[in-house]
Amino acid sequence: MAKPLSILFVSSEVVPFAKTGGLADVSAALPQVVREMGHDIRIIMPKFAAVSDRKFKIHDIKRLTDIPVDLDDRTFLASVKSSFLSNIKTKVQVYFISNDTLYCRSDLYVDPKTKEAWPDNDDRFIFFCRGVIQTLILLGWKPDIIHLNDWQSGLIAALLKTEFADEPLFKNTKVVFTVHNAAYQGIFPAESFPKTGLPAKTFKPDGVEFFGQMNLLKAGLMYADMITTVSPTYAKEIRSGEDFGYGLEGVFKKKARKTVGILNGMDTHVWNPEVDTMIPQKYSAATLDDKAVNKKALCERFGLHYDPTVPVIGIVSRLADQKGFDLIQEVLPDLMQLPLQLVVLGSGEKRYEEMFTKGAKKFKKKLAAHIGFDEELAHLIEAGSDMFLMPSKYEPCGLNQMYSLRYGTLPIVRATGGLADTVEDLLAKPKGGTGFVFERYNAKDMLKTIKAAVEMYAQQDAWKAAMKRAMAKDNSWDASASKYIELYKQLLKKK
Q1: d(CA 18, CA 56)
Q2: Would you give the distance in Å from CA 366 to the centre of its chain?
Q3: Are the folds of 6-265+478-493 and 285-474 the same?
């Protein structure tokens, strides 16, 4: 066997320690699969308030306490703690960069009172990035690969190529930078730049400067050895224009040769209808009729009349513009004229929460909504629905469409990002499709596609054949992790 790789995986959030979105799921799942494949991968993240010492059995690393970290003319102290991320097959060591002043707060990035980003997020994540490098030096652990994720860790790439370029520990280390969502960039005023410790020459358009400000996502893009995104289509979209690149499309174009899209995987242990303990009736592709028990339970849960001939469309989502809810708002009365039922789980923008709560009162026989989040209910919607609606404006990868495929719940999606990469259109491929896809971000096109899906539902033989194809799709992390390991190896071969 070839020599195992040493990999440091840097992320601002990791399940179960801290989570705001899909980044946390990826940051737990991918390292565990890479570890299962025999490589020495470790994770490092900030120790937020949510990371309980007792709950997660976190211990101090005695030789890594009170480490001075300079941010321009101020010095903060970092302490490094440790725990493990464990599953049935393996465990991965996790390091936590701790500083109570910076991280002991009720939310990871945003002040819950003002709903605005914490005003010192520049301090918090510059400190984190510098702390990561100092931790490695003090540990004396030499990673072959440092894998950075999103803007919160982007500065590390720039520091390794400038201030720490002559550090022997990093002599042959390669940096991979993954963009999970280009809309979030870590933009700060020029006054924040001295805190980074970067040379003055890097505050230029070919460095970290961005329209007179500092951009930490750009730092990762400009200085990483390789860039990845979370789906092949998203890798193309972010260089296609401002709708996806958010002002960085020129940089993405410039770095196209160094960029590869690798589709995120899904946790097939948690999301598997054959073993799912959160649903009333387990089922498989061989026992599709058992899925109806879950549909009946879902209808009962939401107070809807159960009718096996009427399809139930499920939604589990953040209620935000990005997710296409403006399209639903535009055609909701027309949607309610179709022979279907709609169940919604999610929270977010007030106008969309109100749209569904008011809609549930107006169309109480056809529409039901639960505002908030409930993990068990999310599983029931995936298992009990016939279709799953994701009309996203953009979707770097998306996970719910993968869950839906796994549960034989045919997705209705817009052709963007990971949705385009995972769902094959039944209308274009009646004998090979796994869901329904519309191209243009347009309410009429979405409604037309939903109508076509409802009509096809009546053809149960064809529908069940599509369900079986959907359930046979391999969207596990194994395939994605293998691609990452191959990428790491190819990168290390380059001088």
Answers
A1: 11
A2: 31
A3: yes
- pLDDT the model gives residue 1: 56
464: which 2 tokens? 């069940």
Contact 488, 144 (CB under 8 A): yes
The sign one gets for the Cα dihedral 21, 27, 33, 36 is negative
Instruction: Specify the fold of 6-265+478-493.
Output: Rossmann fold (3.40.50)
**pLDDT: which is higher, 279 or 372:** 279
pLDDT band at 368 (very low <50, low <70, confident <90, very high): very high
Please state the domain extents for the chain: 6-265+478-493, 285-474
Neighbours of 462 (CB within 10 A): 15
Residue 381 tokens read as 């919607």
Mean of the pLDDT values across residues 281-302? 98
Q: What is the pTM of this model?
A: 0.91
What is the reported pLDDT for 72? 94
CA distances from 274 to 106, 279, 468 (A): 37, 10, 14
Phi, psi (rounded to 5 degrees) for 97: -85, 120
State how far the Cα of 344 lies from the Cα of 381, in Å rounded to an integer: 8
User: Which single residue is written with the structure tokens 């903060």?
Assistant: 76
Provide CATH code, domain 285-474. 3.40.50.2000
Q: What is the rounded distance in angstroms from the CA atom of residue 419 to the CA atom of residue 397?
A: 7
Q: How far apart are the first and last CA of the chain?
A: 23
| Amino acid, res. 107 | D
CA 116 to chain centre: 21
Question: What confidence tens digit (pLDDT) does each residue in 32-64 have?
Answer: 999 999 999 999 999 999 999 999 999 999 999
Q: Where do we find the tokens 């191959």?
A: 486
Beta bridge partners of 83: 94
